[in-house]
Amino acid sequence: MSATGSTDAAKEEILQRIRSALGSRPAAEPAPRDYRRAGAEAPGSSALLDLFEDRLVDYKATVHRTTSDHVGDTVRSVIATLLPQGGSVLAASALPDEWLPEVTRDTGFTARELDQFAGVVTACAAAAAQTGTIVLDGSPDQGRRAITLVPDLHVCVVRAEQVVETVPELLSRLDPTRPLTFISGPSATSDIELQRVEGVHGPRTLAVVLVTP
Amino acid sequence: MTTFLGLPVHAPRGVGHLRGDEPFPDAARKALANTQLRRNIGHATATIRAKRAAVVAELDDWEQLRLAGEAIKTATMLRLDDHLEQLERRVTERGGTVHWARDANEANEIVTRLVQATGESEVVKVKSMATQEIGLNEALEEAGIAAFETDLAELIVQLGHDKPSHILVPAIHRNRSEIREIFLREMAGVDPELTDDPRRLAMAARAYLRRKFLSTKVGISGANFAVAETGTMVVLESEGNGRMCLTLPETLITVMGIEKLVPTWTDLEVFLQLLPRSSTGERMNPYTSAWGGAHTLDDGSPDGPRDFHLVLLDNGRTATLADEVGRQVLNCIKCSACMNVCPVYERTGGHAYGSVYPGPIGAVLSPQLTGVEDNASLPYASSLCGACFDACPVRIDIPSVLVHLRAQHVEEQKTARRLPTPEAVAMAAASWTMSTPKRFAAAEKASRAARVLGGKKGRISTLPPPLSGWSGSRDAPVPPKETFREWWARTRDVPS
Question: Residue B144: what are its φ and ψ, rounded to 5°?
Fold first, then answer.
């Protein structure tokens, strides 16, 4: 029995079972979409940035506000504070040079090599204030998924205009054919007596540098 | 493998974890005697209930989201064949391979063969209900492949040689000192000074699993959603073990029930709001990963596994779809909110249900996947209070499906027996009695004779068979000296 032969027969049978189960294929009602899709606030407005910060802090991330001409200084000071013992830091391959010229760029390190880095710096694709969510999509200033996963500190630079209010607005800004990672605070578990412990397998510390123009 | 004859095909016996070893009432009686378990479950369900209530109250459009979620899922099921074929096309275009599995055995064979083709003998796993349902770990073990569960709770369950008791927090029945003992006994290389502080326990798991993540070449996952229109797979998680398994291995195998898809990317905007708030009581879970086939980035460099396989699993789902009342259960997004509000689950815990799907949703899902006679006690494991429907983010009418399945069970009993059950005889007699006012009044008067059964305390607590089935679990007050009709006639001065 060839692998493909078996699965083809299985596919036909499952589809046949579905058609038989549905019988006369009754028409479905269109889904009502009267939930909130657009936010009340414009992307990047100061009310949204406050909400975004509040949500991130609630999830034990740290938030560091800065302006566009001071991003590098802020990132350096965040790293100095959060990695007091030092340790090497990695950046997405195309992180803007004016942000952090001196940091090692990702050139395709293995997982074990990534494990030697204490921190990583990336940009992001979009963010939602209502849930405190940041999304990475593998663009060159964010890098492949592994670099923001293995090191223990993730410093993520979010530009004010990238922050929308609602989840529907967030999804409308994303390309579903790219590899996407939605991040809402550092990794966490509540598996032991439901007591929340921040930081399990992903980065134990998430620092968000929020940039206004 | 059976040939398709047009009849619903249920999940096969002898494989997987959809059937318990004993009926619910027997298992529940044992669970109720375990006070530690009751305390742990009671504390856990109360805590999650409160968290969920708080974050649901933050959204003034919660009911609109529920209605949208219900409608999207209902419409998806009515065109499930079209959506599945579209998903297969998109995943294939994106460099993945799609496999179809009629049942647990076929899915286990496919996954085992895929792992064997890589030449590896170890896999890392993200928590997945589908792979627990089909008993994948046992099937892999038989083929000499070790499967490491990486979710903290699943790890506790696996190292404790135990069974999950809740679909969201599977080790909810264990407290911290029990977990410490399990780690000290079973975790290779663990610090012997380990305390029972949850942070220390979590860090022990981090150190233990990191070695596995960095070296294991095959990952196995489930999926929370798959988007048919774009071929996007979606996994929600908290710890980052999911990201590790989905990103670092060279080969990724995802096993997904055929009901888990949504038609469009836009549909996800509803479920990414409903699921985290209903499940962990968070506005959003820490990590959600979305991917398609094998990814390369803009500069051509690879991102994540080079080989992606999607296994689409039936295992009784098409049989569930064939039942017009029961098919709504396929809309479930496995959030576990119904468990946390259920007065029965809160007292018995998950093990008593026998299946990997416990609680109210398990009581309507397991019997439909296996055929109702293989899980005949589960539709009765409920007081029909309706709290599960109120909590369900996609508005599954669990109480109605429970009643529907009870009726199916009674019908199947009727066909299986020559003589009617005592219950059926009693119901037929009641129907005859209640169909005219005269007979009913006569019966009410006659019932006064039963007052003698109550003795001095005025309560009936034991009856002879076949009525012992009723009195075994409840006391009944004796019938009153005066019936309601007599009281009405006496006080209202109307002719009786």
Answer: 80, 20
